[in-house]
Input
Amino acid sequence: MRALERHRKLTAIWASETGFKGWFSTVNHNDLGRMFLFTAFFFFIIGGLLAMLIRVQLATPNSAFAGPEIYNQIFTMHGTVMMFLFAIPTFEGLAIYLLPKLLGTRDLAFPRLTAYGFWCYAFGGTMLIVAMLFGIAPDGGWFMYPPLSSAIHSPGINADFWLIGITFVEISAIAAAVEITVSVLKYRAPGMSLEKMPIFAWYALITALMILTGFPPLILGSVLLELERAFGLPFFQADLGGDSLLWQHLFWLFGHPEVYIIFLPAAGVISTVLPVMCRTTLLGYGWIVSAALALAFLSFGLWVHHMFTTGIPHLGLAFFSAASTLVAVPTGVQIFAWIGTMWKGRPELHLPMLHILGFFVTFVIGGLTGVMVAVVPFDWQAHDTAFITAHLHYVLFGGFVFPIFAGIYYWLPHFTGRQQFFRLGELAFALVFVGFHVTFLAMHWVGLLGQRRRISGYTPEDGWSVINLISSVGSFILAIGIAMILIDVLLHIFTARRSCRNPWNATTLEWAMITPAPAYTFASLPLISCRDPLGREPALATALARGEGYLGVPREGLRETLAVDSASGRPEMHVLYPANTRLPIVMSAVTGLFFLSLLLKFYWTVPLALVGVIILAWRWVWSLGLRDDPAMQPVGHDLTLPSAATAERAPGWWGSVFLLTANGTFFGALLFGFAFLWTVAPGWPPPVWFKPSVLEFALGVAGAVIAPLAMRRAIRKNRAGDTPFSNVLIALFGIAVLGITCAALMMRAPAPTSHAYGATLLVLGGYGLFHATVAALMSGFLATQMRLGFTSAKRRAAFPIVALWVKYASITGLIILSAAHLPGMLS
Amino acid sequence: MTELLRILLAPLVWLVSFSAIYGLHGLLCETAEGSFAEFPVQRFVLLAAFLLAIALQITILWVLYQPRFAAPAGLLRFVSRAGGWTGLVATVWTLFPIVALSTCT
Amino acid sequence: MLAGAAAIFGLVMILLVFSFRRNKNSGEEEGQIRVWIIGLGLAFPALVLGALLAYGLVVGERLLPRDGVNLVQVSAQARRWEWRFTYADAPALETTGVLHIPAGRPVDIAITTADVIHSFWVPRLAGKLDAIPGHTNTLRLEADAPGTYQGVSAEFSGAGYDAFAFQVVVHDESDWAAFLQGQPE
Ligand code: HEM
Ligand SMILES: [Cu+2]
Output
């Protein structure tokens, strides 16, 4: 087969529908990565316009531009849009687009999940923007502290838009994180061991794991606050056994890791682009991986530094002050490894390099002011002033926007197949650089003079007028610069001339293909033996196009790839992807209906939406079922592999593991909240305690013990060739009993609206009931599949997955029942 | 999975002991006022917890250097040991204020 | 702190600029790792940060309230958008928007709130401390000289936040006594 013919055949298999209809049914990472990036930059423009409005308001004293009611919406939306709708989705988009290409495979692990995540993001973001257009946007600041954001002090629907819209968007982030984690661990080119992985993949993996463990506390906080606002469950009301400090803990448990979730992908971009710009390899690969890991962990131990002024004893603050200084060490390791790389090579001042230099200057300053505010007495003065706003922009703009611009200019030829033509980019960079520093150096200064953040006005007597004017002028220079970058990119897309295949002479795999990238990425998959495949074998691209790698023979209508052992990169199974479908967009629309019903308090459509989600999810997994045992599949180079449907640990199992990791973090945060309220909140003990019931407890425990055991037997019997129908039914029964006892707990939770104790028990019971229901549905699904002949001793992949969820529901159920019943029984 | 575990174990243990000791400190200062007969109970409990955390980290690090448990040579071994050192240094660095500062003010 | 930060920043910039020189004698990878990563990346920040941390903790420890002699106790309650102050030495007295304290004596301010979170901040006298529903936070401060000091609430509290300020009037001994007697000066 000739290369061109192979290209045609593969394109026919992998392409999305033509025209704009294709957008709604595509599940291909090429399209979805671009859609993510495009949407994220659309939101960046909105956030930027809001920033301009902020600077207009603050340019002059006693500004009459906007009253506080409007201004509060503006800065809240600016922060919210930038953090949730721009920064995180930009990472997701970049990772979704790049990872399969860097890793030498054809798509991500769960293509439909990618699409579902995108649509959740698009719908959730739209909700927030629509609210803003109607003038009912959230206005409590981007961290939404209760009681200011509680029903009493924010009676309108504004805060609900934040809580519900952001939760919707976070579902998308969790989906993308599961996707990225499994893809990096399992979907790589044959031979690519962890050791030979491109550095960006390490950063993406670490970031994804951080999203999985960092976002759940905020999702929990949002759920609790929304329950308080909608149904009066007083989690954050001090007079009813709640505590507003709980929100601060939950928010910053998310909020600080969030900063590193934003920075790490950018660091990944730098680690990828910088060596190419310097014609060398990265200095200290192992050190950088270790430093990124250390950074990820340490960033989870810093959250209280946002709460230095809340009255925590000094020793408690000291722990976090120490941790906050320590986190600068792995950052230093990365910075100096990069500078060392520059010394090792010969840096050339291409456009991406300019932005990397912009990063160095800006981020180092941001890091230094960050270390300053880690010092407790300094923070007591600087907290909540413009100094903090300036610091956070040095970190976010320096640590994210500059690297992303570098990345965009670096990969633009890959997106478009064209080369830089206009010289607008250099001028734009200069404007952005100068504008940024003028704006925010001035804000440092005025902050030290005592200007608080989030004020909508000041008086001439304050003496801040000139500095603020300078800052505002700077911000307009910055805005013009950014606008020029966007224009430059558009011009490039539409008018620049064609470029050669690997314009930067890079050594990573994404350049071993024609550009713009074909829908199938690689015509055949490479065998990897080192970290710089293109450096060692510059002709790799043509060899792959000629079908000399794995899976070089397109098979009619099948989207094929390989999955590997996660550590060694040894090929392990043969994977078939689902093709284009509208299921993801429909599913996220129904999910959106669920959230919208909650938001607008149309409670009768809530169950409708839930049933819709269940039906769609059922169809989603059902379509993966096989009626016959799949044969071993030859994949080229004399290798035959089993199908993923016959694996003990199929991709779905891996996905479940990481989804449950996020879920477990959510549950852990819930338990933490319970313990926190119990021990710290004023207004305890509650007026009435829950009446424990030995019967309920015993039944629940029995169900929780029987169900996983039955699933275990089911797996064994199935492997031996039996059809373990009855065992799965027993598991279903056990889980149902557990669910009923959790429901009983909910019914009997004492007065949930009059004390946080009862409210927390209600939520705990609800959590148990929800997971029991999910596990029961999955067991029911498995039983149905068995009846209709979709499983066999070989087609066994579904069993361990269901067993995993049953086990999770049982363990959490046990903990929930113990937390509710045992204290009363023991005392 | 074991590869991942070897890398993540020490920092995870740091995270857990750090949060636990922070929580413990909050509880001690919330409940027991002052000290029994001039004996600073709280500080003693915190110190014990601190030493325990350090001992745990040293054990993990030691295990990571045992040929029987260590990761295969190369990047994974390097990163897992770096993780071990991160855990130990982080434990000492972030919790040493227990030794130096007053406990509950 | 600022000077140290500027020095570090300068160092990084110099290293960046010099990386563009054409003829650098870089040596082999091992040595580079030792210089750049272990030396500059690990040891250097660890030393600087260790010192900074120790300094910060010592200062913080010194700011803690000790058993004060001659301690004055007042309460500050915030609500949107007004501070009310009461005085242990004169239970009947309540002032709004103006806190009176004596000079040269340690003052404990018990900070509470009646609605949302606020923060008590008199930049020239002490750092911030939040007023959190259901909790009482105590701030220790001491003003050396009589005079009037500006204070603001420093936690965003909604539409009236801009102008949410107060004053601290520091009295000398006789004025303070007169104030407690209920005679405005
Ligand atoms: C495009 C240039 C930008 C300008 C001129 C700008 C300007 C500002 C200003 C003036 C404020 C706060 C004012 C105040 O509270 O007194 C602010 C707040 C904030 N900005 Fe930006 N910003 C920009 C980009 C970004 C980016 C890229 C991010 C994040 C990735 C970001 C995140 C935030 C956050 C989180 C806040 C705090 C909002 C709050 O207090 O609730 N900004 N920005
Ligand atoms: Cu932070």
Observations:
- The longest strand of chain C covers residues 72-79.
- The two ends of chain C are 42 Å apart (CA to CA).
